[in-house]
């Protein structure tokens, strides 16, 4: 029984990997079940044991990547005067960067970023002990999470062309109002 479960898990993963290779090359509406099964070395009936269609494969990948609120590291600082711990976001993103970079990139799923932000936002609101999201909190979190997801996507897309330490420093500077003011001054806006 354990051997069957191991084989079943591997078969499912092989199908996901084949789908992912295709998804990295082309849009989902251009991917067929036949292409996935041919690439993975299985027949169509095997595919349908695990997935309803190609969209179901993507849905299952996305669901596995969305932050589980219970398992997420603390995202807010422990002390009042500390900044948001960017390392928590980098660690979360780094764990599956090959998927996040594509899903959040130009050819990815536009809805995925929203799903990801909503999951993280729920964790942050829980840590803030805010029963209701005020407009100010909601817009601030949307801005912060969009910026962090955007800059991490850009960093991985560019093969981590600056060190993690430099990235964290830059992100802290940008989150600080002086960082934005410096940029505006440099650009003479």
Automatic annotation (TrEMBL):
GO molecular function: DNA binding
UniProt keyword DNA-binding present: yes
Alphabetical list of SUPFAM superfamilies matching this protein: Homeodomain-like
Protein name (database record): TetR family transcriptional regulator
InterPro entries to which the protein is assigned, alphabetical: Homeodomain-like_sf (IPR009057), HTH-type_Tx_Regulator (IPR050624), HTH_TetR (IPR001647), TetR_C_Firmicutes (IPR039532)
Native organism taxonomy: Bacteria, Bacillati, Bacillota, Clostridia, Eubacteriales
Domain (HTH tetR-type) ranges: 9-69
DNA-binding region: 32-51
Keywords noted in UniProt: DNA-binding
């Amino acid at each position: 029984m354990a051997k069957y479960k191991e084989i079943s898990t591997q078969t499912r993963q092989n199908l996901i990997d084949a789908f992912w290779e295709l998804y990295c090359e082309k849009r989902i509406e251009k991917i067929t079940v036949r292409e996935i099964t041919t690439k993975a070395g299985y027949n169509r009936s095997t595919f349908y044991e695990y997935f309803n269609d190609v969209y179901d494969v993507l849905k299952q990948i996305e669901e596995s990547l969305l932050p589980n609120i219970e398992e997420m590291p603390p995202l807010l600082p422990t002390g009042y005067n500390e900044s948001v711990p960017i390392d928590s976001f980098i660690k979360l993103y780094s764990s599956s960067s090959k998927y996040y970079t594509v899903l959040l990139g130009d050819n990815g799923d536009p809805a995925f970023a929203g799903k990801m932000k909503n999951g993280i936002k729920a964790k942050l609101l829980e840590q803030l002990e805010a029963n209701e999201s005020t407009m100010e909190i909601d817009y601030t979190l949307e801005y912060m999470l969009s910026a962090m997801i955007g800059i991490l996507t850009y960093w991985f897309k560019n093969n981590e062309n600056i060190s993690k330490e430099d990235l964290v420093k830059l992100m802290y500077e940008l989150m600080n109002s002086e960082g934005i003011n410096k940029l505006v001054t440099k650009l003479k806006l």
